[in-house]
């Protein structure tokens, strides 16, 4: 624990004008280095958190938090399963679905697609596709009318928009006297959606659940139930609980299993970026070492005088540790003062910068996300600050120890 006299002298040394201006310059660069490192870490990690949140929302806007099926890949008694899960406290919404692959044809244009059969009245319980419609609505899907809603990129590839006809070709075939004939069905485009993810906008088409049963020969079966949970981060635990409730004959999968590699890649990228940017703080810490070593050399006579009037080596060490720690504290405070406001207002600042310089950092025709999102986490901010302060403190130990080893008789010999 630092005593008042060490604190007073350490603060005085921090404020005092140096005889050696180079030492002052090194101290200033140390403060600026810590400031830059802390601010950069806060801003970059907030942007990466924002991208992760945006990607997760877009992915989970089309895929459910969890799905329930059986071991055959088809669910026959889905109404009974839905009734059993209706009172589950962690489930906020359910909707039946059918997923199957097919080919879509419009004139000479052909494209593969993942066709999803849904109940329009239930779909809003588990996905955001209803709020992502560019034209038309989910309610325009009527059983028996064979309407289809296309992703925006898929509609562009097919050249098919609202009111146009497309032909759906299924993997199943009808067997006739002349052999196997592909099963075809004409659909009318009743809407186009865009969620901002090429994975879905380019490959997904939506039809009514009853039409999907007929087209894909599901009879009274469906692919499964899609579930919306109260906390998507608890999805694995809730999925295990649902499995225990329904029994082993049902297969419950959650979103973390389907997209685990993608989010692992995001997490790894965030970790690597943190390490790279934290090197800025590490360099600033080395500057603190250099600054204090030069200060100790510059203040040898002062140290000798302090020793002769009764200060112990431990007190001398405390003086210079205080001085170096103050440099770290100033850098962290300034870094927080720059990084936090920028991170909180990044979505407003970036459009202003783009407008001023007439540039577009994230063109919509190139990137999935056109804006630069930011999501500031208090935990990240606290962690960055504590690590920067710890590094700054550790950087003071060696120079302060050297100062404590100075003998008064050696320091004053040539004074």
Overall description:
With 415 residues, this protein is an alpha+beta fold. It folds into 2 domains: 4-57 and 262-411, no CATH class; 66-257, no CATH class. It contains 16 helices and 10 strands. It has helices at residues 4-15, 21-60, 78-85, 120-123, 152-158, 198-201, 209-215, 235-246, 255-258, 260-298, 300-308, 313-344, 346-357, 378-395, 397-404, 408-411; strands at residues 66-70, 91-106, 109-118, 133-135, 147-151, 165-176, 179-193, 204-208, 224-229, 250-254. A 6-stranded mixed barrel has the order 2-3-8-5-7-6. Helix 10 (260-298) crosses helix 12. The longest helix is centred in the N-terminal third of the chain and has 40 residues, at 21-60. The protein starts with a helix and ends with a helix. The mean pLDDT is 81.
